[in-house]
Amino acid sequence: MNAKTQPALSTRCVHAGEARDAHGSPHTPVYTTTTFAFPSTRALLDVVEGVKPGSLYTRYGLNPTIQSLEAKLASLEGAEAALAFSSGMGAEAALFLAHGRNGIVCLGDAYGGTLELLADQLPQLGIRTALLLGDEQERLDELLADGYGLVFLETPTNPVLEIFDIRALARKAHAHGARLAVDNTFASPVNQQPLVLGADFVIHSATKYLGGHSDLTAGALMGPAEFVAPVAGWRKNLGTAPAPETAAMLARSIRTLVVRVWQQNQNAQAIAEAMERHPRIRRVLYPGLASHPGHAVAAEQMSGFGGMLMIEVDGDTAATSAVVDRLQLFAIAPSLGGVESLATQPVTTTHHGLSDAERERRGISGSMIRLSVGLEDAQDLIADLEQALSAPRG
Ligand code: PLP
Description:
The chain has helices at 9-15, 41-48, 64-76, 88-99, 112-124, 139-145, 166-175, 188-191, 225-238, 244-254, 257-276, 295-301, 317-326, 356-361, 378-389, and strands spanning 81-85, 104-107, 129-132, 150-154, 179-183, 201-205, 219-223, 281-285, 308-313, 331-332, 342-344, 368-372. By secondary structure, it is α/β, with parallel strands linked by helices. It has two domains: 9-254, Aspartate Aminotransferase, domain 2, CATH 3.40.640.10; 259-390, Aspartate Aminotransferase, domain 1 (Alpha-Beta Complex), CATH 3.90.1150. Residues 87-89, 111, 113, 154, 158, 183, 185-186, 205, 207, 217, 219 line the site of pyridoxal-5'-phosphate. Belongs to the trans-sulfuration enzymes family.
């Protein structure tokens, strides 16, 4: 399929990568096998030596269910190649080990596990890392000139939905011979296509929108085959390919990705607009609102604004917890991207371990509630928030 003639994303979500079996199953079956038999030693060597594609050993990812999922994942992001992982962190760790040896710059806020890997763990292996916030972008040129080879960012970021200009940052990285990796978890491939905008790699916590039902843990990496190949070597020996059962569940979920995300976009926009008018809400951060500082860039590079938003309550941390505790439809839980709506105060979960000063530097306050908007009726969700916001101010 070339770019001009390829079917639309919703069609690819359903059909890409699917291999019908001899019985006519409309989807790739689950091959729970760990190893695969060959008709001859020559046929085995062809696969071992990469001369011919084929299945060999499940930990290598060379299993038809995993390979079928990977063809679908590649198609989602318009990539030449994709790898599936047992988690989003598995994808990040393999990417950093394969392509981060000259130094990794993380731009903007990121998921806590990513920050731990970059700030504490990779430096223990002698890998230099630099963590810049959005307002420190001017230091990026300096680091790239110093030979840092990989720029990593989320957009929109967790949890304040900061937006980075993927096209401009890809140009900057490439001008210095560096590569750009975008964590596209929050946007999903439905709302944003980083490879088309010039990024070299996309990673996903497939645990979130791609899985979509809060019932599986998986990760994905997409990019040009030449860049993805060395990552596969790390995945193989770190042992972080997904189980075939999980791969099949993830492929099942991706078939409905587009309709889920479209509905989540609409629900989140309706909630953001209602919350912006609410007297007990100080601020709403949602890229689909004209008031969001990144709205113009988001409107340019995203085709939808996603299901994640942040509301800031007029009240302190305890008063905000009281609002969260009164929610009935929204569950109090970390994670995101599922069909059910979730609410969490970042100070109690994703940013719990940070000092007050560090939280302030990252613009995180105790009055913030992060919402992951699901597939319930938008008016029901708004009514739930309104009744919770009528909690006494404490
Ligand atoms: N990237 C983002 C934006 C995340 O929110 C998360 C997890 O919350 C991860 C990566 C890590 O993914 P996983 O939990 O699947 O390892």
